[in-house]
Amino acid sequence: MTGEKQWYILCVDDEQDILDSLYDTFMDKYHVKTSDNTQKALEIVNEMKDELFLVISDQKMPLMEGTEFLSKINEIKPTCKKILLTGYSDTKAAIDAINKGSVDKFLSKPWNRDDLVKTVEKLFKDYKTDLMFDKIIQDTKGLMKSSKETKCSLELFRGFLESCIEGICIISQAGAVEYINRAGLDILKYDTIEEVREKSFKEIFLLTDMGLKGFHAKYQNRDPLPEQLYVKSSDGSIHDMLGNITFCEDENDFRVNGIVFKLS
């Protein structure tokens, strides 16, 4: 089965000879459905609108004219391509339908077979392009929604950190201060995070290798009780505080990724 063969064309005409001719023209390349009744044709469209890329309809039809029928197709599946077959006297109605966007192309009866095939091939390419852009739009909307949700989550998380009465410091993978909440800045006597961001956390939290190993052991044992921690404030004074440290670990080593601290 070719890529085109998975797609359907619906041909609508009240003359069986016309339907047979259209079926024979496209049966080798597409699935072809036919109907001699516009109401039944609308039911077919509703049943298989995901696979349907083109509707070809005669203008002179019982129940409703082709232009009205194709405008209803627009309501069901706007991306579906539409060709109107007309007699000479119906040309104005066909042009009006194109201007209104309910018809993509009209061909006068009797049509040239090669012209019809080329028209359908072009509309099929246009349809696939429309699908591609529609997917891009939907993906973009999904990304925007995900971005908004992520932003909302980050704002909630930041709000939680800022509401804590204990100091909270987040450490980057390189060992630099990435964030300190308002309570932490007040304890350390800094006005803004910019004054301390990118500093090594060891410039502020005076930890020896032995001290870090002790905190790491507490972390592994899930011991929640804070330990003594020496901290240097912005004026250079050193304070005795209580704190806990969180770690990121791999197979061979560990690193500090967060410090919670408060005045003792």
State the CATH superfamily name of the largest domain: Response regulator
Which overall shape is indicated by the principal axes computed on the Cα atoms?
Answer: rod-shaped
Oligomer: single chain
Distance between the termini: 76 Å
Counting DSSP H or I runs of 4 or more residues, the number of helices is 8
Number of strands: 10
Mean pLDDT: 88
Strand content: 15-25%
**Number of spatially distinct domains:** 2
Please give the order of strands in the largest beta sheet.
Answer: 2-1-3-4-5
The profile of the biggest β sheet is:
5 strands, parallel
Report the CATH C-level class of the largest domain.
Alpha Beta
Domain Response regulatory: 8-124
Organism: Desulfamplus magnetovallimortis
Pfam families: Response_reg
Modified residues (4-aspartylphosphate): 58
Brief characterization of the structure:
This protein is α/β, with parallel strands linked by helices and 264 residues long. It has helices spanning 16-26, 38-47, 66-76, 91-100, 113-163, 182-188, 201-204, 209-220; strands at 8-12, 31-35, 52-58, 81-86, 105-108, 167-171, 177-180, 227-232, 238-249, 254-263. Helix 2 (38-47) packs parallel to helix 3.
